[in-house]
Amino acid sequence: MVTEQATTHKSKRSRDLTRFLIALAAIVLLNILAANFFFRLDLTEDKRYTISPVTKQMLAELPEPVFVEVYLEGEFPAGFKRLQQSVRETLDEFRIYSGGNVRYEFIDPNDISDEKQRGEFFQKLAQAGIQPTNLRANEGGKQVERLVFPGARVMYKGKETGVMLLKGNLAASPDERLNQSVEGVEYELATAIRKMAFQGGKTIGYISGQGQLETQNVTDLLGSLQEFYRVARGELRDIPTLQGLDLIIIAKPTEPFSEADKYKIDQFIMNGGKAVFFVDALNANMDSVGAGGMFAMPYNLNLDDLFFRYGVRLNPTMIMDLNSGFIPIVTGYTGERPQTEMINWRFYPLLNTFAKHPITRNIDAVYSKFIGTMDTVRADGIHKTPLAFTSVYSRVMQAPVPLTLEEARMDVKPEQYQAGPQPVGYLLEGAFTSLFRNRRAPEGAADQQVKEAGVPTKIAVFSDGDLVRNDVNPRTGQAYELGFDRYNNVTFANRELAMNTIHYLLDSEGLINVRSKEIQLRPLDRVRVKEERTYWQLLNIVAPIVLLALFGVLRYYLRKRRYERF
Predict the structure, then answer these.
(1) 64, 77, 467, 522 - which has most CB atoms within 10 Å?
(2) How many Å separate Cα 524 from the centre of its chain?
(3) Is the N-terminal amide bond of 65 cis, ω within 30° of 0?
(4) What is the pTM of this model?
(5) What is the distance between the alpha carbons of residues 46 and 59, in angstroms, rounded to a whole number?
C-alpha cells in the first residue's frame, strides 16, 4: 500500500514537473518570437508612436544597410531627453521594418578626450549641416553649459548626409519647439534615408529666358533639389514642349512671356505637370533704392490671365510690415570711413504665420523681399490653400510705390499698419481649365491640338521672386545658403519652404504628409512613464513574474503532497 502511494506520488510529481518545464519552455519561446516578430501597441490618443505606411514601405524596400550616427547621447534635461527617446524609438522601429537594414549608434561628441580631435569632429559635424546649440542645465546644483549637436549623420554606400533633429519655429517656446522637433523625427530621418538610398526618378525643369534668376542666385536651391531629383535647365523659347518633365520652376521673371511660351506652360499643366511660380508683381530692387530711390511699378509679364484662369491674382501692391528684416544704412562718417547701423526695413517682411499644411507646418520664419498681396478668384473644381501670411501689423501700398532709404529712418505710425495678415502664397489643386479653351493654339506652337480640360494636378504660386534667391559673396563669388541673411548672420527657412513645396507637388507616395503628425504637449510629458511598450518589452517584464508565480505554486503543491504522504 505504501509502495503504491509512493508510486502515485512520484507519478504526480513527475507530471507537475513536466507541466512546469512545458510552461517554462512556452514562455521562453514566446519571448524569442516576440523579439523577432514586432508590432506596436500604440495606446496614446494622438498615435504618437505610429509609423506611417509610406515610411514602412520605403524601409521594407531598402536594398542595402543604412547606418545612422546620432549625437544625442548623454544626460539631458527632460525636454531634450524626450527628443532623445523619440529618436531612439523611431530608429528601433526603422530597424524592425527594414528587416535589420537600418542600424544606429548614439554618440556623445563631448566624450572625445583629445581637444584637437574634438574640435575637428565638431567642425566635421558643422560641415554636415549639424549646427550646435548651447544647452544650459543644472548639474550638481550648478548651472552648466554644454555644446550639444542635436542631429545625426545618415550613411549609405560611402555617401552621407546630415540631419538636424532640433527643428521647429524659433518664435515658439522651448517646450513647444522641442515638441515640434519630436513631431518631425520620423519625417527628417525617413527623408534622409530616401535621399541616400533611392535615386530620384523625377525630373524638374528650371525655366529661363524671361529674365529669371541667374544660376548663381539659385545655386543652393538647385543643388538641394539634385539630391532628390534630376534637374534640367533651359530657355522656354528654345524648348518645343515641356512634356517629359514632372515639374517646372519659374523664379522671378522680369520680361514678358510670349503667347507661345504661355501655351507651353498651360498645356504642360493640362497634361498633369506640376509648377511652382515665384513671381513679383512690381519691379523693385535695392540697387536702385540705395542709389537715390525709385518708384516700384508693375511688371508686364503677360501672366495675369494665366494665373486668373487657374484661380489666383497677383495684385500691383507691395506690403510693408513691422515684423521685418534689417539692412545696414550709413548713418555718418568718421573721417572718410562710413558708419553703418542696422535699421528695420519694412519692405522685407518676415513671414511667420503659416497654414497647418504639410508644406508649412512647424517651419521657421521665412525672409521675403518686396512682396505683394494675392487674391483668389473663381476657378471651378480648384481647391485653394493659402500657405504663408505676413503679420497682423501689415500695410498694403498701391503702385506706384516710392522706395527710398529715408523710409527706414521715419517714425512708425501704428495706425498705418492695420491691414492684418496678408496671404502671399497659394497651393492650387484640381483639374484646371486651359487658358486657351475655345481658342486656337498660338502661332509657332509645336502642338496645335489644344487640350482644353486638364487632368488633376497641383501648382503653387508665391508673390515674391526673391523667396528662392540666395545671395552671393561679392569677394569670393561663392553662393550663400538659401535664406541666409549675411548682415545679421541668421538663416531663415526659405529653403525648407521651397523644398517642402516641391516635395509635396511631386510626392505621389505621400512621405511629405508625415509632417502632419501632431503630438499634443501635455504638462505631464516631462515626468510620466512611456504610455506604450513593444510587445517583447512587455513580455520581458511579465515573464519573470509569471515564472516566480509558477515556481511558488509548484513548490506549494510539492510541499502539500509531501505532507499528505506522511
Answers:
(1) 467
(2) 27
(3) no
(4) 0.82
(5) 23
In angstroms, the CA 152 to CA 193 distance is 12
Can you name the residues that pair with 461 across neighbouring β-strands?
Answer: 277, 426
> What's the per-residue H, E or C state across 314-372?
ECCEEEEECCEEEEEEEEEEECCEEEEEEEEEEEEEEECEECCCCCCCCCCCEECCCCC
- Which residues on adjacent β-strands are paired with residue 457? 430
Residue 74, phi-psi category: left (phi > 0), alpha (psi -120 to 50), beta (remainder): left
* Through-space distance between the first and last CA atoms of the chain, rounded to whole angstroms: 13
CB proximity list for 473: less than 8 A, separation 6 or greater: 479, 480, 486
| CB burial of residue 148 (10 Å; 0-12, 13-18, 19+) | buried
3-state SS of 100-163 is CCEEEEECCHHHCCCHHHHHHHHHHHHHCCCCCEEEEEEECCEEEEEEECCEEEEEECCEEEEE
The model's pLDDT over 210-254, given as tens digits with 9 standing for 90+, comes to: 999 999 999 999 999 999 999 999 999 999 999 999 999 999 999
Angle at 343 between CA 340 and CA 346, to 5 degrees: 145
